[in-house]
Amino acid sequence: MRIPPAVTQRAAVGLMWALTILTLGVLLFIIAFILANGLPHVTWTFLSTSPESMGRAGGVLPMIVGSLWVAGLAVLISAPVGVATAVYLTEYTREGRLTAVIRFGADCLAGIPSIIFGLFGFVFFTITLGLGFSILSGALTLAIMVLPTIIRTSEEAIRAVPKSYRDVSYGLGSTRWQLVTRVVLRSALPGISTGVVLSVGRSISETAAVMLTAGSALGFPHSVFQSSRTLALHFYVLSREGLSMPNAYATASILIIAILLINLSAYALMRRFVAKVV
Amino acid sequence: MTQVPSSNGGVEQAAEWLMRRQPAAPAAYCPVDRPAKMRIEDFGAAFDGTEVLRRLNLEICACERLAIIGPASGGKTTFLRSLNRLNDLNPGFSKTGRILLDGKDIYDRAMDVAVLRRRVGMVYAVPIPLPWTIYENIAYGPRMAGVAGRGRLDAIVEGALKSAFLWDEVKDRLADLATNLSGGQQQRMCVARVLALEPEVLLLDEPCSGLDPISTAKIEDALLELKSKYSIVLVTNNTKQAARASDRTAFFLMGELVEVGPTSQVFTNPTHHRTADYITGHFG
């Protein structure tokens, strides 16, 4: 028996709606569940004091500061490297074996589980280079981890700059460096910023890689050579060791809100970018 | 110089003006004893081994308007892009022969390509404003050449826009985005952008292909004015435009130069029958 096209059409639309609602529903449920359990415990004292008795009481100020340090430093290191790589791949070489190898390498980096980065960072940065459990070790490890994202998004943004701009710029007697800095990067900046902002989000939420490199000290970090526990790791420790579920949820709430804000700003940047190009 | 009406001046007025417009004064043919600004010697070009231009010999004189006509894929654009080495950007490009600018080979190692492109400026078929303000667009070339200082740049921008007959229309909105200009204005802005570099040779690759008659006339008038200072090479698909806006005309066919001569002669008494066929519209 043939099913009429109108029926299959309606069935397909219905199915897609159901799946979309399911996806969004799961996401919203997770966020709502954590915020419902955590937000009541997020008070000014919680945000502005240090933890006491291993996190059973007190606040999370050192973790907020530590997260900002680790994520900020990681992106500060990887953004220039990633953007420079993207510029090299798009503007300074012709497609060939070398660019293929670099891209393949970046894609492989993107696929490696974060705990492996953590292990590498632990062996290389904390032990071999003698940086110990420190903000710097964690930031360097995360920098390598988010590098592929930054390279890829920057590459896409640079490729989206119309080719004709290059003709114009060269035709007006610019050097390649002037073309890249004055025309290409200027036009690609919103797209590049989007990738960088998303990398900040990824760095802030990373747990496994920082556990093995930045350590889990509870004290307030005063320099990048000190160990510092990040928010994500603090949540992990609190819940894993059953120290305080309310405080774990409160920590998670702060983390989720931070990441939502970061992603929203990334989308705002992206919209500006699209509006400009189209 | 005839007075150019403003673009929004009404269709009737524009049409009347177009009809009243004097045909270009009898072309002053570049005398043979005048030194050539550019000399093309046995020049050939190929992309990935496919020959696009064959054994080209041609001179571009100082202060003339040379039109290049011919059917599509005859090598006109490749020729133009060879004159300021824009073809170098294509990895498959290779060339034979020489192109001299004031007696110096432009493909010589000692030639600074950036300087060459400032001396030999290019206007493209489609206006390509960079997504910045009008002022920034015009000032870009001089800035890259190291010109600094608001006063000097202001003067350059004003002069270039006046030479391109655009100043009166945009003088109050130099800080507006160039992309908001009309098509004809954008193309004149692109001319101004090149003129801001005070080039010696001005290359135009079908600059009026997408423009209305009024904008076309304005650009042609600008070219007439500009030829006192520059050598102008105009590639055009419009034989009528070549007839009214050039001193000499070269006919390209399948990558070869068929003939070149004073425009009046090429159009009234061409030496080659292929030229005659093309001009009278038998092919192309």
What does this structure look like?
The complex is a heterodimer of chains A (278) and B (284). In chain A, strands 1-2 form a two-stranded antiparallel ribbon. Chain A is built from eleven helices and two strands; from the N terminus they run ααββααααααααα. Helices cover 76% and strands 1% of the residues of chain A. With 278 residues, chain A is an all-alpha fold. Chain A has two domains: 5-41; 44-48 and 59-277, MetI-like fold. With 284 residues, chain B is α/β, with parallel strands linked by helices. Chain B has a domain at 26-131 and 199-279: 3-Layer(aba) Sandwich (Rossmann fold). Chain B is built from eleven helices and ten strands. Chain B has helices spanning 11-20, 76-83, 113-119, 134-144, 150-163, 167-170, 183-195, 213-226, 239-244, 263-268, 273-279; strands at 36-47, 50-61, 65-69, 93-101, 104-105, 120-123, 201-205, 231-235, 248-253, 256-262. In chain B, strands 6-7-8-3-9-10 form a six-stranded mixed β-sheet, sandwiched between helices. A four-stranded antiparallel β-sheet of chain B has the order 2-1-4-5, covered by helices on one side. Chain B starts with 10 loop residues before the first helix and ends in a 5-residue tail after the last helix. Chains A and B meet through helix 7 and helix 8 of A and helix 3 and helix 4 of B.
What are the defining features of this structure?
heterodimer, A: 278 residues, mainly alpha, MetI-like fold, 2 domains, two-stranded antiparallel ribbon, 11 helices, 2 strands, B: 284 residues, alpha/beta, Rossmann fold, 6-stranded mixed β-sheet, 4-stranded antiparallel β-sheet, 10 strands, globular, disordered N terminus
